[in-house]
Amino acid sequence: MNFSANHLRLNLAFSGGVDAGDDPYTTVGEEAGIEPRDLVKKFFTIAMGGDNEAGALPACFKGGISKENLQQLKEASLKVFQNLELFNGWGITLRTLKVRY
Predict the structure, then answer these.
(1) How many CB atoms neighbour CB 2 within 10 A?
(2) Which of 23, 73, 80, 101 is most buried, judging by how many CB atoms fall within 10 Å of its CB?
(3) Residues 17, 8, 3, CA angle at the centre, nearest 5°?
(4) What is the dihedral of CA 13, 15, 21, 22, to 10 degrees?
């Protein structure tokens, strides 16, 4: 079993049971017109871990994600996965669930 994009898959599962597909990072990257895949993965790590978009900007810049790329990736993510939870501290929620179970 491949656990690629595990946190993203859990986010989608908790947000309505949406299937992430075979490679959600590539899917969103193609929709946004952004490569490489690792940059898209960094975006998701930051966007699901942060509690607001403005606060995530420094981490994005450090990770090589420009403000323009951030906007493109956010829009593409929400187009592909309408119920996706971004910039709301979802990563903290996930860690809390891991501790409980």
Answers:
(1) 7
(2) 73
(3) 95
(4) -60
Question: Would the pLDDT of 20 be above 90?
Answer: yes
H helix or E strand, kind and range, residue 79: helix 67-80
Query: What contacts 15, CB < 8 A, 6 or more positions away?
Result: 81, 83, 84, 85
Kindly state the DSSP code that residue 101 receives in the 8-state scheme: -
Spell out the residues 6+ positions from residue 52 whose beta carbon is closer than 8 angstroms to its own.
Answer: 87, 88
CA diameter of the chain: 39
Query: Is the model's pLDDT at 68 over the cut of 90?
Result: yes
How many Å apart are CA 19 and CA 99, to the nearest integer?
A: 24
Residue that has been written with the tokens 């592909």 in this structure: 80
Amino acid at 2: N
Asked if the model's pLDDT at residue 1 lies above 50, the reply is no
Question: What's this model's pTM, rounded to 2 decimal places?
Answer: 0.88
